[in-house]
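**Polypeptide and fold**
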Amino acid sequence: MHLESDSHYGRTLNPANINLSSGGSTGGEAALIALKGSVMGIGTDIGGSVRGPCGFSGIHGFKPTAYTLTMKDFLPSGFAAELNILCSTGPMCRSLRDMELFMHILCSSKMYLRDPRVIPIPWTGLKTPLPTKPLKIGIMMNDGAITPQPPVLRALEWAKSQLTSPEYSSLFSVKPYHPYNAAEAVSLIRQYYYPDGALTHKHLLQETGEPMFELTKASIAAGDFRSAMDHFRTHGAAEGRQAAPVPMGRDEAEA
């Protein structure tokens, strides 16, 4: 589970710079769309397999809430990583307009009639009513563990300058966002991806005689996964409650 696309056919290259990666695990689709070889595409995303390649190749994509779109018949069976992080079907397009069209058409097809896991929520998209008060937006320049490359930081600074412009003050409320213990989360997510210790992956590679990539070896972490995950979630929730106390109910307020 690393953001790369490689196989016995070779490594998928970035369409803008062949010295760079197109990302993964849907890097081929992203590169093809960026080169105008395809109008739009469909990806699946657990930890970034739509978002990563789209960002690498300069196209648009996002991970919808799980069960917004169907995943029926995508795979013959489930896979271990979904025990911890739900997978989601998402669009890969050249523009925001195309993503709106993609989501509108698929959500209007009533997929929930064929896949009971899909939640029957209509897609409002660009027709979503605007909020009556400023929309709160958190901007994260650095998560405390990873510093983005300079071009990414420039893009974030540009976005911040646009959102904080006086002409939009009635629409947006922009504040810095600081996630809880990102370094520990990065370490734990490797274990989230392999709750079986990557035994399935190892057995498949042994059957075919294929070598394991070095990045794959590095992403397989050992440890007491269950207790570490529970500890992180518990302490993260506690810190969140301290930062933003739950409002009192009416009876408590009156008392």
